[in-house]
Amino acid sequence: MATWRRFLAAGLLLAAVLGGHAVAPAPAWAQEEGNVPGAPLGNQSDAEFWRALRQGDPGSVSAPNPAGGVLIQSEGENWRAVRNGPLSRYGVWGLIGIVALLALFFALRGRIRLEHGRSGETVTRFNAVERFTHWLTAVCFVVLALTGLNLLYGRYVLKPLIGPDAFAALTIGGKYAHNYLAFGFMLGLVLMIVLWVAQNLPNRHDLVWLAKGGGMFTRGRHPPAQKFNAGQKILFWLVILGGISVSLSGLMLMFPLQYEAFGPTFGWINWAFGTELPTTLGAIQEMQLAQLWHAIMGLFLTILIIAHIYLGTIGMEGAFDAMGSGEVDRNWAREHHALWAERLEQRGQPAAGDD
Fold first, then answer.
1. Which domains does the chain have, with CATH numbers?
2. Residues 285-329: pLDDT tens digits?
3. What would the mean pLDDT of 340-347 be, rounded to a whole number?
4. 128-157 vs 283-312: helix crossing angle, rounded to 10
5. Could you tell me where the DSSP H helices lie in 255-355?
6. Cβ proximity of 283 and 67 under 8 Å
7. Distance (Å, rounded) from C-alpha 328 to C-alpha 325?
8. 25-55 pLDDT tens trace
9. CA 72, CA 59: separation in Å to the nearest integer?
10. Residue 316: strand pairing partners
11. What's the Cα-to-Cα distance from 212 to each of 31, 176, 206, 322, rounded to whole Å?
12. Residue 293, Cβ neighbours under 10 Å: how many?
């Protein structure tokens, strides 16, 4: 009899749970207070409470990680929609667009040749420290760009080609490479600033160079330039400012939930331009914005560097020598950086670091 009763009680309990019914009525004190067990706020609705819950406010939690108290974070769906929608779509168009534009330019203009051929004499353009700085930054960035593109597009492009196991191994290896080589990239940025910032300040010759398109579209016309022309200066500052920006957002992702950047930044923007951007952001919102911004700046720099690689290799004769051996043909220096070459000749010998 006792065994039969136990089975009956267990069956009634299971039926009550599956049917969504309470096994026993709530205590009288709870019914009087309106706080029915199982309902966080009883039959009362606290709009502020639910609004904070939906916005990802963890409130007061005893967990070591405060973010563990976040139950609902509706901005996460917005982040996902932007990342997998406009960000990915426009990123592809940007990458395809720059390759197509460079291909069209090459078809119409061809390789920018030396007008007077090679003289057989060379001058020192970049010394060993400068070349080390360039290649450190360049190699690190290429790996960062490829591993970042894999995170954004790899599951659509690589995974169907190499299979899930190989893709998983490649991605986890890329993750470690991305994290560690990021510090090499940041070191390269610091060295670039120390070595070249003074030579990349604008001057009056830059306006002439820009007005003539740098001689890129016409043969036989090379506007005078110092060691760095206006185009190289623009590239320098875009790389420096973009590199700093992508580095800061990357550090936020590498050390999650530790820093606030977008709330204070939005505050400055609101003050300067009279906008109404949100300034009170949760930790998860900061991380989502950091990820989006990191991807945007990464794509921007990748597009920029593709153009730089083109001009430094097949796009211009003799340009690769500057960062290859550090020595460039004297005619190359006279045609593309006439003011710099003239100063070298006045001094009677080539000297790296001249303006």
1. 127-216+223-347 (1.20.950.20)
2. 899 999 999 999 999 999 999 999 999 999 999 999 999 999 999
3. 87
4. 120
5. 262-273, 283-312, 321-324, 330-336, 338-347
6. yes
7. 8
8. 444 444 444 444 445 555 555 677 667 666 6
9. 12
10. 112
11. 84, 45, 10, 23
12. 20
328: three-class secondary structure by DSSP:
strand
Whether 90 contacts 96, CB under 8 Å: no
Pairing relationship of beta strands 327-329 and 122-124 according to DSSP bridges: antiparallel
Q: How far apart are CA 91 and CA 296, in angstroms?
A: 8
pLDDT band at 347 (very low <50, low <70, confident <90, very high): confident
> Per mean pLDDT, which range of 2-16, 182-196, 269-283 is the poorest?
2-16
Among 141-155, 280-294, 335-349, the minimum mean pLDDT is found in 335-349
Tokens of 348: 């009677």
> Beta partners for 123?
328
Integer Cα distance of 19 and 42 in angstroms: 20
Q: How many residues does the chain have?
A: 355
Tokens found for residue 351 = 């000297």
* Secondary structure (DSSP) of 8-69: HHHHHHHHHHHHT--SSPPPHHHHHHT--TTSTTTT---HHHHHHHHTT---S--SSSGGGG
Taking the model in full, what pTM does it have?
0.79
Q: Is the pLDDT of residue 21 over 50?
A: no
Residue 110 to residue 217: CA distance in whole angstroms: 10
Q: What is the DSSP string of 98-165?
A: HHHHHHHHHHHH--B--TT---S-EEE-S-HHHHHHHHHHHHHHHHHHHHHHHHHHHHHHTHHHH-HH
| Closest to 308 in 3D by CA, of 122, 86, 134 | 134
